[in-house]
Write a structure and sequence with these properties.
The chain is of the alpha/beta class and 291 residues long. The chain has two domains: 3-140, Rossmann fold (3-Layer(aba) Sandwich); 142-174 and 200-262 and 277-291, UDP-galactose 4-epimerase, domain 1 (Alpha-Beta Complex). Helix content is 42%, strand content 16%. It is built from eleven helices and nine strands. The protein has a seven-stranded parallel sheet, with helices on both faces. The chain has a two-stranded parallel ribbon with strand order 7-9. Strand 4 (72-75), helix 3 and strand 5 (101-105) form a beta-alpha-beta unit. Helix 8 runs antiparallel to helix 9 (243-257). The radius of gyration is 19 Å and the shape is globular. The termini are far apart. It binds NADP nicotinamide-adenine-dinucleotide phosphate. NADP nicotinamide-adenine-dinucleotide phosphate binds next to helix 1. NADP nicotinamide-adenine-dinucleotide phosphate is lined by residues 9-15, 36-37, 40, 55-58, 76-79, 105, 107, 141, 143-144, 147.
Amino acid sequence: MHTTILVTGATGNVGREVVTQLAVIDGDLRVRAGVHSLIKGENLKRLPDVEIVEIDFKNRESLHAAFTHVDKLFLITPFAEDQIEMAKILVDEAKKTGVKHIVKLSAMGADAEPGIQLGRWHREIEKYIEESGIAYTFLRPALFMQNLENFNSESIKKEGKFYMSTGDGEIGYIDTRDIAAAAVEVLTSEGHEGKSYDLTGPEALSNYDVAQIMTEVLGRKVSYVDVPEENAREAMKQQGMPEKLADALLELHGVYRSGYSNEVNDEVQSLIGRKPHSFRQFMMDYKDCFM
Ligand SMILES: NC(=O)c1ccc[n+]([C@@H]2O[C@H](COP(=O)([O-])OP(=O)(O)OC[C@H]3O[C@@H](n4cnc5c(N)ncnc54)[C@H](OP(=O)(O)O)[C@@H]3O)[C@@H](O)[C@H]2O)c1
C-alpha cells in the first residue's frame, strides 16, 4: 500500500524543501505538492514523481482534487491576517476526505501562556486540529536562517548592512533544510502522533554574531543595525504590511530583544540523527545570495 502525502505551501521556504526531500525517498510514497500558482510551482516539476496540484486555501472548491486519497497532510499556511481561516478550511477538508495524520508547521512558543500574538494564532490552529480527531504532530521552529536571504540580502549586497529591531538578544536560528528534514522524518516514520517538537538550530546567536559570521564568510564587512521599534514599524507600514501583522512581528522582536528566545535544544538531532546546520554552514551554502 502506498502513502500519499500532500504538502501545502509547497513553493514556500519550508514546503519547497519538504517536497524536494520527500521526492528522493525510495518506497511507496506519493508526493503531492499543493501550489498557489502553477507558474511558481514550475521548479517542482523537475522532481521525480511529484504531482503538482493547484490550490487556493480561501477557495474550498479548489481543494477537492488535491485532497483525494491523501493519507498525510503537511499543513503550511502563510504569515497572513487570515491564516487561521485558511488553516481551518484545510483541516475541514482533511476531515471530510479521511486524512489520517496532519503535521502542522507551527512556531516556537505557540504553547506559551499567555504568549504572544503570533504564537496564539498558531495555537488556535493547533487546537482546531486537536479537536478534529485527526492524528497530529506540531513542528514549532525558531526563527529561520533563510529569512536573512529573503528579507535582508538586498541591503547586505548594496550597503553591507542589515536592519532589525532585536537588540542584542540571542536567537536559536534554524535552517529550513533542517525543519524539512524533521518534517520528512515525522511524515515517514511511526510514533509521532500527538507530539510537538520545538525545533532550534545548534547555537543561540545575536544579530551582532550573525553579522560577524557573515563578515568572515563573505570576506567583507557586514553590520547589523539595531532599529528602534518606531522606525521598524514605519518601514513595515511603507512596505504595505497590515498593522495587525506589523504589531505581531514587533512583539516577536521585543521577545528576541529581551533574550527570551535563546533556547537551543537537540530535538532536530534526535529526530534526524545528525546535527542541524550551523549559521556558518548556512552562510557558506548561501554565500552567492549575499554577494
Ligand atoms: N519565517 C520564520 O522565521 C518562521 C519561524 C517560525 C514559524 N514560521 C511559520 O512558518 C509559516 C510559513 O512557512 P514558510 O516560510 O515556509 O512559508 P512561505 O515561504 O511564506 O510560503 C507560504 C506558502 O503558502 C502559499 N500560499 C499563500 N497563500 C495561499 C493561498 N491562498 N492558497 C494556497 N497557497 C497559498 C504560498 O504560495 P504563493 O507564494 O504562490 O502565494 C507559499 O507557497 C508561517 O505559519 C509562519 O508563522 C515562520
